Amino acid sequence: MTEQGGSEGGIDPRLVELAGEPVLVEALVFVNEHPGDGAVQMAPSLGLDLEAAKGALADLRDRKMVERIAGSSAEDPRYRALTRVLWTDEELAELSVEDRTRLNTWIVKMVGADVDRAMAAGTLARHIDTHISRTISKVDEEGWRELAQIQNEALGAIFAAQEAAAERLAERGEEGISVLSAMLCCRLPDGDEEGGRAISGSGDV
Description:
The chain is mainly α. The chain has seven helices and four strands; from the N terminus they run ααααββααβαβ.
């Protein structure tokens, strides 16, 4: 797994602590993705009652991971994130395998929850060019590095597309559509017999 961003000066240990508190993780992700929103907006998105949403945001504020936006009301405070839920390869290298496993586990769980919501809402294949693929490869160490680099480059392109789309939407005053882009590149158990099999539901292959 590769992520970009992260806290300045190395890995933020608070993020590792959050890996065992899924509600706080999801709350921090929400604030990162929805700056300027508060508990009222977050509660239905995360399936929480209003008091639980307020409590999660207050906890993150006490940990100095989010801050209240100046000018928002005391009755309905709005927040922005002070910590991104993303890390560089160098920061991840500072963690143990166990800690990296914890972080990857909750990311995979969030992806699964996102996909479940899309299936339930009937939006999973609404666009003809939806891309969903599964590929298992047999590679050497050089091939592993090449596959990891492909993921890195794709993530950078996704961030660039996000920024460009945000500017266009702001100019037009449009809300836009929510899109999940999830990538996974990890080692399977030794002796796996499914090497080379590819399954794709993409409209653009």
